[in-house]
Each structure stands twice: as structure tokens, then as C-alpha cells.
Write a structure and sequence with these properties.
Layout (H helix, E strand, L loop, with lengths): L19 H6 L8 H6 L24 H9 L4 H15 L2
Length: 93
Amino acid sequence: MPKLKNRNHSPHPCRGRRHHGPALADPDAIPFTDAEWLEVKPLVRRSRPLGSGSKTQVTLRPDVEVVEKFRASGDGWQTRINDALKSWVKTHA
């Protein structure tokens, strides 16, 4: 591996201190104190709840009239399709 030129090296932690002076002089850029960090709330990530582990994702292309019929019955239409399929499986097992 070729030796890197000095300007391509990662700066040593001590060498980077010269850049901290101007930042510390800016009143809007003053670092948090330990007490302030204790008050910081963690980032809350909102997403869908974890599944039960008993389902699998598939791509299904039913006829338009089938989907329209289930959608017309309101929210939860996908769950009702699943229930209809489960019922069919039980009666045809």
C-alpha cells in the first residue's frame, strides 16, 4: 500500500484543537455541559409495531371486484381477506 502524503492523514486529536477556538467563541456553538446532556431526550423512532411472527409477506393480485368488495366494507379489509382465506383453508383441509 502506498504511503499517504501528510495532508491525507487523519488529523491527530491534539492537532484538531486549533479548530475548536473559533467554535467556542461563538455563543451559539457552546457545547452542552454534562448536566445538559442528562436532560436530552433520546430520539423517538415511530414505526409500525413488530408483527406476531406468525405471518409472512406475499404479493397477491386478486381480481378487481374482489378487492373492491372488501374495500367497500371499510377499514380492516385486508384483515377480512385474511380471515376469509383462513376460513377457506379450514373447510378445504
